Amino acid sequence: MLKLFRNNQIYTAISVLIYSLPFFMSHFWENNPKTIATEDYPFLLSWLPNLCSWGHNFTGILFFVLLLVLAFWLNLVININRLGKRATYYTAISFILCAFAFPASDVISPALFSNFCIIAAIVQLYKAYEKKTSVLEVFNAALLGSTAALLYAPAVWYILFVALAWFILRTFNSKEFIILLIGFFVPYYLLGTYMYLNNRFLDWWQRDIAGSFGRLNFEMDITISFWISLGIWVFLLLFAVINLRGLKYKTTIREQKFIDVLLWLLIISCFTWIGQKHFGQEDLITIALPLSIFLSLNLQSFQNEKLSGYLHFLLFIAAIFAQYEAHIL
Predict the structure, then answer these.
(1) For residue 312, what are the contacts with CB-CB under 8 A and spacing of at least 6?
(2) Count of domains in the chain?
(3) Distance CA 253, CA 250 (A)
(4) Which residues of 58-96 are buried (b: 16+ CB within 10 A; e: fewer)?
(5) Comparing C-alpha atoms, which of 143, 168, 131 is closest to residue 268?
(6) Separation CA 112–CA 115 (nearest Å)
(7) 75-117, pLDDT tens digit by residue?
(8) What is the pTM (predicted TM-score) of this model?
(9) Which domain holds residue 132?
(10) Which long-range contacts (CB under 8 A, 24 or more apart) does 130-137 make?
């Protein structure tokens, strides 16, 4: 099955779409679809509950469209920057598998939208590496990191990621460091000013900022498929770190630095649950993004193609079982 996605042609993109349909269809077979409380959406996404009220089928289609956009965009970033051994659609299918790895993960959540900002920030960081003067890219990356935090409060950790990534890619002068700090501050300043002028600053701060953190409450239904998928994820996380030298083998300094940036994204994304008040299966998509990248890079790095096929098939079966567990058992 993995051979179908080994090139970067248009017909392969159609294959990715067909490949994802079994996971997409499971959304319509749910007897008790997972939803997110209106108060859990930040101000910037306050319009989403009204949109989701259009019906379960509509939200399923919207989630599917957003997920595909993220998958293809992430795949494009990896291919353009030549991080894999070849241009494939492995990253796209890996992201789809990781996104559907848990039973209640197919939800339009703030974490899903924050991923758009993270991918855009990575693009800006990679562009900055190629330029001698990269003030605009530094500012944009910091701006996007802060915007991700405004869309999804636990993503405030990604502000640290942007700073670390910039330090990994190149040395920066005091001017660029100040620009970085300004980029972090601007989204909070603009939104905070808007709230203040509308006499809503205190409510916004208590609800979207301070109210998002506190004593952790895991809001997950622990099932057999959950433990299976979690075990596979832990294995993939450990394997990504252990096989880091293998991924960097015969790569340029530029590509090695780009992979190091993604490694820090993977590490920091695993800590987004620290300090937040609520943590559900839909929040795991923050980890799915960097995890899917390393999964796809590892699938390409294996000299034994059968091993790559077995690993992909294992995650595919886990995702199918997660989405159809209620009908299988």
Answers:
(1) 1, 2, 93, 97, 299
(2) 1
(3) 10
(4) ebbeebbeebbebbbbbbbbbbebebbbebbbbbbbbbb
(5) 168
(6) 5
(7) 999 999 888 878 889 999 999 999 888 877 778 888 899 999 9
(8) 0.90
(9) 2-328
(10) 134/176, 135/175, 135/176, 135/179
